[in-house]
UniProtKB/TrEMBL annotation:
Residues 35-178 form the AAA domain. One of its GO terms (cellular component) is plasma membrane. The keyword Aminoacyl-tRNA synthetase does not apply. Gene3D superfamilies: P-loop containing nucleotide triphosphate hydrolases. This is non-specific protein-tyrosine kinase. Pfam families: AAA_31 (PF13614). Belongs to the CpsD/CapB family. GO terms for molecular function: ATP binding; identical protein binding; non-membrane spanning protein tyrosine kinase activity. InterPro entries: AAA_dom, Bact_polysacc_biosynth/exp, P-loop_NTPase, Wzc-like_C. Its EC number is 2.7.10.2. It catalyses: L-tyrosyl-[protein] + ATP = O-phospho-L-tyrosyl-[protein] + ADP + H(+). Keywords: ATP-binding, Kinase, Nucleotide-binding, Transferase, Tyrosine-protein kinase.
Amino acid sequence: MRDLLVTLTDSKSVAAEAYRTLRTNIQFSSFDEEMKIITVTSSRPSEGKSTVACNMAVTFAENGNRVLLIDADLRRPTVHKKFKLPNSLGIVNLILEPQRMNEIIHEDVIEGLDIVTSGAIPPNPSELLGSKRNRALLSKLREEYDTIILDTPPLLAVTDAQVLTTISDGTVIVAQHGVTKKDEILQAKSLLEKVKGNILGVVLSQIPMDDNSHYYYYSYEEKKTGRKERRTKK
């Protein structure tokens, strides 16, 4: 699955440049508010949100940030597969035993990028992620990292992403080209707005390369003003 990490395997490609553009858009999405913890989610499964989260993490690290990528998808975790990491211990263990941080965090998987995999899947993911223990953990990690990216489950399936959005500074929604329906994106948007989530924008993934683009990215502010931007042409 490492071939999906184009920011590592083909850093000069159109796709890799698209992720760098996405990073820049996120960094400048707010001048007045700190953008440290970013949730990445989607409306439905298999829309590419984990791939987007992983490539985002790489580009933030390449920009000189100290980055932590957390696989908070405790339903179908894949981050460990993409980076070929062991997954016996992960965020589940870290929430329950934060004193084992040095043992659980995979440090400098690439320069500047630390990773916490999921660990064993618990019977109560939503409750664990929304617990005081997890809030305290993320508060502590916030002090140690420039950027924390949370890969979370789809919004329309479970409540996990909603829970984590309340702890995050901003949320990116991933939608799949030719598959995700408009009403699904609107439902996902509505769910985030119900918990007062800060929606940074939408990434449209898996656009065929003959469409002259890897993805679209637009913020809701752009949508309100009637402007929609197409990024990173071939």
